[in-house]
Amino acid sequence: MKKIAVIGLGYVGLPLAALCAKKGFSVVGLESRREVVDVLASGDSHIKDAAVERLLAEANSSGNFYPTAVIEEIAGCEIFLICVSTPVDGDREPNLQPLIGALESISPYVKRGDLIVIESTVFPGTCEQIVLPILEQGTGMKAGTDFQLAHCPERVNLGDLFWTTENIPRVVGAITESGARQAAEFYASILGGQLFDVREIRKNLRPKFALVPDGYSVKQIPLGSVTMMRSIRDAEAVKAMENTVRDVNIAFVNELAKISDVLDLDVVDIIDGMATKPFGKGPFFPGVGVGGHCIAVDPEWLKTASKKAGYMPEIIQLSRMTNNGMPGYTVSLLQDALNDRGYPVKGTRVALLGVAYKRNVDDLRESPFYGVRELLEKKGAVLAVYDSWVESENTVSSLVSALSGAKAILIVTDHDDVVSELHEQDLRKHGIEVVIDGRNCLDAERVINQGVLYRGIGRRS
User: Fold this and answer.
1) What is the pLDDT of residues 367-419, one digit of tens each?
2) Is 84 in a helix, a strand, or coil?
3) Which domains occur in the chain, in start order?
4) What is the reported pTM?
């Protein structure tokens, strides 16, 4: 069985390395953070995710997974899976330095016949214009002839117990047709799904709906399938564009939420009503902001690539402005609600609930929490920060402590345990007078019946 090097053991690399080990490959996981290597070497996961923890336990039982911070340990590997972070910087410009550093590190260990796959998110053209020259210079060999270079964009959905690294359909592109085939066959070997050519997809998804005896069925791509794109650029664009579509749609429902506020509508009920139509829509829901390494980042990569090619994508730009402005909009709802109850923001204690960018994960990347906190601090609010999944930003140790003495609650993250505990609380006994539900996750009537002023994002008061 081939020996695999997984470079970067974060949210993408760790479950991928564990899956490869579970499937019988000998896996060296290279991670620069020694404290992470120590945790993994002890058999534990540094990522708080049930699916990742289960997969890691299976990998450890196989005896095939070896985490290390020592670069020399990747010698002899035949497949290199690059899973390092590719964030955006303070100016919202793509930062390729982690990827460049990883490529320069592995180059001395790449041999003829090896396969290198970039899983890290990149903008279209990165693999050919940046990755390929670095690898050819570092190895002294020719990509596509001496070794193969492919891109398989990660699709990790952290916190999802159904869609995991083991079954999410993947797309693969490479600089040669044979490289695409080699990479696709490798991914099919760990996912166990079918291989498709991208030109087969539309045919395989039609007709989308079919009548069956008890209703109708919906055609889907099979679990764990691998689709070969016709170019490595197309593969790069799949990730950037699929998350940009989500970003644009979320921006649009955030706009609908603002319209609903001024027209006294309940956008959540409206979206649920729209969901009864089984074709032609999302649904997407509004909120305090988007975060994570996909929706909040991938559109920036696509925008940068488009700008460099001479076209400013105005819809993407407007969507980014809309979603980036949602923390400010949410804080304005809080300010107005506090004014209605006779309180200024300055000097008022606010329970700020949630730091992670989405529920039931401990991932802080691009979380709207930071924008909300900064705005509230500038306005002089006294903040009690609590997240049951993330401790690093907490100023109190429990939900009850956060509520104690607070006049308002602002929800950034709708963790299941926090929402459940909130529903059990008598908010007025804690002195709460205002709730700003940034995720539209609470039972609004229950809150209002306690005599508390409730405001959601686009929800009827």
Assistant:
1) 999 999 999 999 999 999 999 999 999 999 999 999 999 999 999 999 999 99
2) coil
3) 3-230 (3.40.50.720), 232-461 (3.40.50.720)
4) 0.79
